[in-house]
Amino acid sequence: MTKTHPFFAVACCAALVALAACATAADDPPALRVGHVGHDHQLALYVAALRPAMFRERFGLHLQELKAREVYDLVENGRAVARLHLVKVGGGSLMPAAMSRGELDVGLGSSIAVAKFADDGQPLKIICPLQTDGDMLAVHRDLPISDWASFVRAARAAAKPLKIGYKAPTAVAKMIFERALKAEGIAYGYDTGGPGLGVVLLNFGSEKSPLPLLEGRVIDGFVMNQPEVAVAVHRGLAKIVADLCDLPPKGKWKHHPCCIVAARTEALERQPAAVKALLKLILLGTQCLREDPALGIDCACAWTKHERAVEAASVPTVNYIAEPTSAWLAGMETWVEMMREIKFFTGRYANRPPEEVVKDLCQFDLQQKAAAELRARGWLK
User: Fold this and answer.
1) Which candidate in 62, 180, 237, 353 could, as Cys together with 56 as Cys, close a disulfide (CB 3.0–4.6 Å)?
2) 3-state helix vs strand vs coil in the chain, percent to 5
3) H or E stretch at 281
């Protein structure tokens, strides 16, 4: 009998292990690193992650959980077409900053922040809307203010200005609030304020939440997206004065854009099929939310860990959309126009008309293909 040399046997075993590893790696679906913020504006993704059986039965498209809240295989027609690595990132500029560093392929976050990074030359595109509205003005529960009209009277008559917090200089809520103050003729300033002001705006961006500042009366109120406002009300700290979409100039802020899905152009070119499958998931998740608000509240509670009363107050104030309507596009042009007014754009968008900026910033071909394929199968209304 011929004996196998020990070295040869070891080498063969090592080769087989290497081949098996290569085969496993080759069998893995393409990976997409997807950033998200974690609040209920991005609920379309979370409902898909939390209701895989419903998606599989209704659509033949679902997420197979590999690691809760972190790793999922996106399965379409029984085949894994993408492996999603979900990465929780802070809001504002943190999402596009992570994308610009190449840490994320796709990000769910602020439309304005993405626009600024694209203006600076970063290879980012908005590929799908996520929602509109969902921004509120809230004040301390003890203030004699109940609606926008009484807020305006208080700001005009106060011996000292009302201190209103905001989370970022270009936050959607802060920009709407400023324009509403201008429309009402209310003088305002920042931080330390000055004489003759009705409102002082304070940036609490370094704080995780405005609620300790409200409780300590450092601020009299704040403008912010949900669900933080609903949390403040639920804790008995605040009351809602106005939904910002209703502030003056009348009608200008209705269905204003907020969160979107953005992608690096490299990901769009390298993995279009995987990105398209993700957009199908977003489209179907959005449809489910619009059809069944109670489902949205349930999933929001499960994902954000807020009490049901909080999400029951928050989710209905958000308008979930995943296709760019004429109102959404007009809203984007409004944001660009306002950004130019304050010289926010200093790069490629600095001197371009709003409609050109929006056309350059947005790339909806994959979203349109995803929607067309879903409609052809009768899955998307």
Assistant:
1) 62
2) 45, 20, 30
3) helix 272-291
Instruction: Return the CATH class of domain 27-133+258-376.
Output: alpha beta
Tokens describing residue 255: 């269905």
Instruction: Give the tens place of pLDDT for each residue, 323-370.
Output: 999 999 999 999 999 988 889 999 999 999 999 999 999 999 999 999
Query: Is the CB of residue 170 less than 8 Å from the CB of residue 116?
Result: yes
**Can you tell me the distance from the alpha carbon of 193 to that of 195, in angstroms, rounded to the nearest whole number?**
7
Report the alpha-carbon distance of residue 338 to residue 39 in Å, rounded. 26
CA distance 264 to 266: 5
Residue with structure tokens 């992570």? 98
Domain boundaries, the chain: 27-133+258-376, 135-246
Note whether 27-133+258-376 and 135-246 share their fold. Answer: yes
pLDDT digits (tens, 9 = 90+) for 219-252: 999 999 999 999 999 999 999 999 999 999 999 9
The CATH classification of domain 135-246, taken from the options 3.30.470.20, 3.30.750.24, 1.20.1250.20, 3.40.190.10:
3.40.190.10
Q: How many whole angstroms separate alpha carbon 281 and alpha carbon 90?
A: 23
End-to-end CA distance of the chain: 71
Which residues are registered as beta bridge partners of 263? 106, 125
Instruction: Specify burial of residue 127 (Cβ count, 10 A radius: 0-12, 13-18, 19+).
Output: buried
